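2024-03-11 09:14:02 INFO worker-7 job=invfold-0412 stage=load source=structure_tokens
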């Protein structure tokens, strides 16, 4: 749990809005898209998670993704990979059959906006900070994490409960991220008023 909190803290710093120290500025609408994504994941709930307790699983969030251990470009790369994997997961034919298509289309739009912002940052940072090889290790851990999620869905025959477990897993990360973003924003405001 501490590792997830550490990674989310790093991701929050990257998505709070314009941050000049990054070497690129994420626009304010990136933060709004992140909040919208979290809200959409909440709205997509079809079943009570309590009905799916027997289907719960630990997907082993990657330890290699500890936010304090990653350089800025690596963290942006990890966040980009996570968003891309989430986009692909919810962009499949199986997802279209499982979820409300209107909410799914909105989720795709919000994720696409965030991916575009991060791609712009990655292009700016790639030459400045890290080689492509240095990006590969943490993003490989993300790919393995999502592979476990996909295998789980397959093993559970894409059941409604399996999709609900996955939705909760992904929503948890967005929810924690939003809470941390707000805490950092308040902290930053207190520092600015000193």
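2024-03-11 09:14:09 INFO worker-7 stage=emit residues=194
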């Amino acid at each position: 749990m501490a590792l997830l909190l550490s990674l989310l803290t790093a991701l929050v710093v990257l998505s709070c809005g314009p941050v000049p120290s990054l070497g690129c500025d994420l626009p304010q609408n990136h933060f709004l898209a992140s909040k919208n994504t979290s809200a959409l994941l909440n709205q997509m709930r079809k079943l009570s998670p309590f009905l799916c307790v027997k289907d719960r699983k630990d997907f082993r969030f990657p330890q290699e993704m500890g936010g304090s251990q990653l350089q800025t470009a690596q963290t942006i790369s990890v966040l980009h990979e996570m968003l891309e994997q989430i986009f692909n997961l919810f962009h499949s034919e199986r997802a279209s059959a499982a979820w409300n298509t209107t909410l799914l289309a909105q989720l795709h739009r919000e994720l696409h906006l965030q991916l575009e912002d991060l791609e712009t940052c990655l292009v700016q940072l790639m030459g400045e900070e890290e080689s492509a090889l240095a990006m590969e290790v943490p993003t490989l851990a993300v790919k393995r994490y999502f592979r476990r999620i996909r295998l789980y869905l397959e093993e559970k025959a894409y059941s409604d409960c399996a999709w609900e477990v996955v939705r909760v897993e992904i929503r948890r990360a967005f929810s924690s991220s939003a809470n941390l973003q707000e805490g950092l924003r308040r902290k930053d405001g207190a520092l600015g008023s000193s």
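2024-03-11 09:14:09 INFO worker-7 stage=report msg="Residues 18 and 25 are 5 Å apart (CA to CA)."
2024-03-11 09:14:10 INFO worker-7 job finished
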